[in-house]
Design brief:
The chain has about 160 residues and is mainly α. About 50% of the residues lie in helices and about 10% in strands. The N and C termini lie far apart (about 105 Å).
């Protein structure tokens, strides 16, 4: 008859321990502690009861169940969205790089056109190579036409610069 009495005592202690509260305190270092025993050397605060676990699962409300599908997105959907954001970000970065490269090309063309005009205006004589590769000197009329052409080139390449 002793084993049933021992079993009864063990069950009574286990039941009492499971119904016991949980002590929570913060030590002098600011660390929060949780235990079944009160804090050592301190006044014992009232223990907190652990949250009760329902014995039966709660039925899902009809509004929250979406044909048996969870309310949040699945990991596959999240992964697809993440990959799409990466693709969009990469495309935006490529477009920005292309825009910057185009702006640099325009700036370079502008500087070259201005330098050519300056050289033409400052030179005593202006020569050009013909089809055979020979140097042909420009007269004043051809030189004025070339200066005008260079100014138009500057207007085209240096708009707003």
């Amino acid at each position: 008859m002793r084993p049933p009495a021992l079993l009864f005592a063990l069950l009574a202690v286990a039941t009492a321990a499971s119904g016991a509260g949980v002590y929570r305190w913060v030590d002098e270092k600011g660390v929060t502690h949780f235990s079944e025993l009160p804090p050592p050397g301190q006044q014992a605060p009232k223990p907190r009861k652990p949250p009760e676990v329902p014995s039966q699962p709660q039925p899902a409300s009809p509004a929250s169940s979406d044909a048996g599908r969870p309310a949040g997105k699945s990991w596959q959907e999240k992964e697809a969205e993440f990959r799409q954001r990466q693709i969009d970000r990469d495309a935006a970065a490529r477009k920005q790089e292309q825009d910057e490269a185009a702006a640099k090309r325009l700036q370079r063309d502008c500087l070259i056109a201005r330098k050519r005009l300056e050289d033409m205006q400052n030179a005593n004589t202006v020569a050009r190579l013909d089809d055979r590769g020979e140097r042909v000197y420009l007269d004043d009329k051809a030189r004025a036409a070339e200066v005008q052409r260079r100014k138009q080139e500057i207007e085209a390449n240096c708009a707003g610069r």
